[in-house]
């Protein structure tokens, strides 16, 4: 996707398919605020408007379709993520993938590190209207439990760190121990969350920001 109009069109398509705003944020790798703005913008285009560049939230869209659409490429990236985790974090028992995009990445990492695999669905997947803080996520029972186990956490991007923090808290609530997090792209320069180190293959830096 090359411009904001493409994102607006994609947000409209996803909303028409019944996805919540949280799921749209996940699919487009943007923040909750950006997802809301895109959905609202797509529904407002009932009359012609001046072709000015639309103003929206300060965010960065990450499109890693070239990786996700190729099983071999996804495996290579998973190996790179596993390599980052192995450098300084010891050995884990479970690799936790954050749904949706984090699970296929976590599958590759889990295979590389020879751990079991867990899947966590964050609260934002239920979020459409109202306060997301009133919602909760959960672990899938179709995958490995985390209780009493050391865990690595895998996702595709860090936008604000909220989802990683939620997952860390969920693991601790279940009696597990989060050792480290790893992502493809970090949009905020996050080095740790609640005492858990965060590693990324790519850091995005906005030049000129203090």
From TrEMBL:
Residues in the signal sequence: none
Keywords from the UniProt entry: DNA-binding, Transcription, Transcription regulation
Family matches, as SUPFAM superfamilies: PRTase-like
InterPro entries: GcfR_halob, GfcR-like, PRTase-like, PRTase_dom
Gene Ontology MF term list: DNA binding; orotate phosphoribosyltransferase activity
Biased segments, Basic and acidic residues type: 48-60
Gene3D superfamilies noted in UniProt: 3.40.50.2020, Homeodomain-like (1.10.10.60)
One GO BP: pyrimidine nucleobase biosynthetic process
Region named Disordered: 39-60
Residues covered by the Phosphoribosyltransferase domain: 64-188
Protein purpose: DNA-binding transcriptional regulator that functions as a regulator of central sugar catabolic pathways.
Family: Belongs to the purine/pyrimidine phosphoribosyltransferase family. GfcR subfamily.
Record comment regarding domains: Contains an N-terminal DNA-binding winged helix-turn-helix domain and a C-terminal regulatory domain (or effector binding domain) resembling phosphoribosyltransferase (PRT) domain.
Name recorded for this polypeptide: Transcriptional regulator GfcR
Protein's organism: Haloferax marisrubri
